[in-house]
Amino acid sequence: MADKVIPLADIRYASSVPHVPARLQAPVGLLSDTRARPLRDLRISVTDRCNFRCSYCMPREVFDKDYAFLPQSSLLSFEEITRLAKIFVAHGVEKIRLTGGEPLLRKHLEVLIEMLARLQTPAGKPLDITLTTNASLLAKKAQSLKDAGLQRVTVSLDGLDDATFRRMNDVDFPVAEVLKGIEAARRVGLAPLKVNMVVKRGTNDAEIIPMAKHFRNSGVVLRFIEYMDVGVTNGWRMDEVLPSAQVIERIQAEFPLAAIDPNYTGETAERWRYVDGGGEIGVISSVTQAFCSDCNRARLSTEGKLFLCLFASQGHDLRALLRNNYSDAQIAAAVAHIWQARTDRYSELRAAQPADTDSSTPPGHKRVEMSYIGG
Ligand code: SAM
Ligand code: SF4
Ligand code: SF4
What angle do CA 373, 296, 51 make, to 5 degrees? Predict the structure, then answer.
């Protein structure tokens, strides 16, 4: 018999098979990590592939035709994802975000959404299910996603100037198609609609005001994200980060803003409203203002590794448990054990370092890429 071949993509990042405690305790939705942070938000990556090559995420020099993406056999099936999601929900997860790569590239994603939409919190409430997309396929899929039970979407759009946007997605994709996707999502009632713009100083910061003008009075919540040092391939430099405080200053100079309270503890975006009633915007300041103290997010990769931080270099291989006949109770106990030991607070530690120090990762470990683990 031929030796079993382990795909390169499966071993790209360090991972370990989780410890399964001998004593099984039923989940009661009250997990808490070493810093008293609960588990509330699960981000599930459904593919590591994408049809864009945004330079800050999947630079084409690295993600080229020779790049080893995960093979089909490595991916969690929809049944496996749903089984894990159910366990996470029992542990207190209330919100699930589907991401990627580009999640709308995963075939029959609507079937997964239908399966997830049937889950309920221990208190009998429906889950908050959302999806982050580059919207290239949204005009075509908005209705079927809505029909499957998706409640809302977040669209990534880095500018309205067509030439700038085509350069940033690096596959010459036109802005007009993304705007059609946003329109379709609005038409079918995928609301509230959010639009995320990653701001890179010198690349698209001239788009801040046009984007603010475009989405004012539209009901869409526009959020500006600081360009992050996630992964190792994007050549991140601090001087390309435009601090959110400056984004707010620029918008304030045109349209007065007032700060508003967060919707809930652990919300990543700081919220602002236009004083004239033109709606709401947000800023996500992952670089200049660490929000680790409230971070209640776990991330599940496409092939079933659990990561406790966006900047993690080590995953926990839940697929190994799924495919080796462990029971739900055993997997739930393993997840509890992992979360209870969680210490991650990468952004806080980076903020405590001198500005010119490179953020460090243990030798031999490689930080995960955003396209692998999702936003
Ligand atoms: N392909 C989908 C999309 O672009 O919406 C979902 C996956 S993408 C990895 C999720 C989010 O991460 C997007 O909003 C993207 O802009 C953001 N992102 C990727 N790399 C980033 C970086 N280096 N800094 C900040 N945000 C980043
Ligand atoms: Fe693809 Fe999203 Fe990454 Fe852009 S940000 S390359 S659309 S995964
Ligand atoms: Fe959460 Fe890690 Fe980001 Fe801190 S750096 S907010 S722990 S994902």
Answer: 20
Q: Please state the pTM of the whole predicted model.
A: 0.94
Verify whether ligand 3 is closer than 6 Å to residue 91 (CB atom).
no
Q: Which amino acid is at 177?
A: E
- 294 Cα nearest atom in ligand 3: 6
pLDDT 10s digits, 272-303: 999 999 999 999 998 999 889 999 999 999 99
DSSP state of 128: E
Atom of ligand 3 nearest to the CA of 312: 2
If we measure between CA atoms, which residue out of 370, 372, 347, 336 comes closest to residue 87? Answer: 336
Q: Of the candidates 90, 75, 76, 80, which has an alpha carbon nearest to the alpha carbon of residue 127? A: 90
Partners of 241 in beta bridges: 200
* Fold of the CATH domain 8-16+40-373: TIM Barrel (3.20.20)
Burial class (CB in 10 A: 0-12, 13-18, 19+), 246: middle
| 26 phi and psi angles, rounded to 5 deg | -65, 140
Give yes or no for a cis peptide into 210 (omega within 30° of 0).
no
The residues spanned by each domain of the chain are 8-16+40-373
